[in-house]
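Posting here for the record, re: magnesium ion.
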Amino acid sequence: MKIERIEVIPYSIPYTHPLKFASGEVANADHVLVRVHTDDGVVGVADAPPRPYTYGETQESIGTIIEKTFAPQLTGLEIVDREQIHAVMRRTIHNQVAKGAVDIAVWDAIGKTLRTPVHKLLGGYTDRMRVSHMLGFRPAQELLDEALRFGEQYGITTFKLKVGRRPLSLDVEACHVLREGLGEDVELYLDANRGWTANEALEVLRRTEGLGLTMLEEPCDAKEALSRRRLVDKSPIPVVGDESVPTAGDASRELLSGGCNAICIKTARSGFTEATEILGLCTGLGVDVTMGNQIDTQIGSLATVTFGAAHEATSRRAGELSNFLDMADDLLADPLRIIDGTISVRDLPGVGAEIDEDKLAAYRLS
Ligand code: MUC
Ligand code: MG
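Prediction output follows.
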């Protein structure tokens, strides 16, 4: 059960509805499929979504670092020796998304080797997660129409609104229109992807007072430490660290310095191993966590629900699991389904992401 080779396959699938947000826009899923092969024929699978505007990694850099640096160093290691695998990857700094995909593929291979679902290996708390849908930049009425459609069609009752626009009135208006149109029982929270200053974020909090917003994610750049701390102190709702906290070390720094008081965990950039470390830190400190979406495909969303459903703390809140619905196609042989606002884990060995090889052949770039 040794790692024999690691395959990286860049591919591209268009979005029918591109997602726009303060730090970027996604019109195509230009991702990398990662497959870890063992010497006894097991294949672990994961998806790597590059986000250059967030972490600096590109489709090319993810392929290259895995192929040229990690694969030669990991070949020959036992698939179950995760600490050795991570000790090797730690020798290269950054490259969180590439490392995350290798880690998830390794977990998938371990699950298949042990003939056990990975959600059981990780904790086995529950078998599904409630779904939160991310709404990108659009005029207020279109946002409301989209949210109503997702509510009706999929039973989704939690929405994360992408904000961080100027003038602030664009987002303030969207919040009012959504609350008015969706009613009081729908959960609404905001993610500014560092689009505002701390003072602008405070102004938006004042102008949306009374709307029952539950969280404010990455309102401004966490590196602007003093103003960010002031915002966190004054905010009546939790301020969630997202792109500022890809590792457990980053999460510790931001929590201890007052840069945030809740943490978004994304398996795409932290894998299952580092996500477990971040989660342990947060539960130890009594800090709320959310399961985020790196604008994931169905493969990535299945990884998120696998981790999120495995633990009590990560399954309390709705996880961001539904943006694959805006893609023209996907690579999963058995598509993910949202039923009554939830997505279930798969009771299959590993993570359960079986790839449709014909689709992969159609969308692969090399
Ligand atoms: C989010 O929560 O920020 C946007 C960029 C990215 O990396 O993830 C998304 C969603
Ligand atoms: Mg975010």
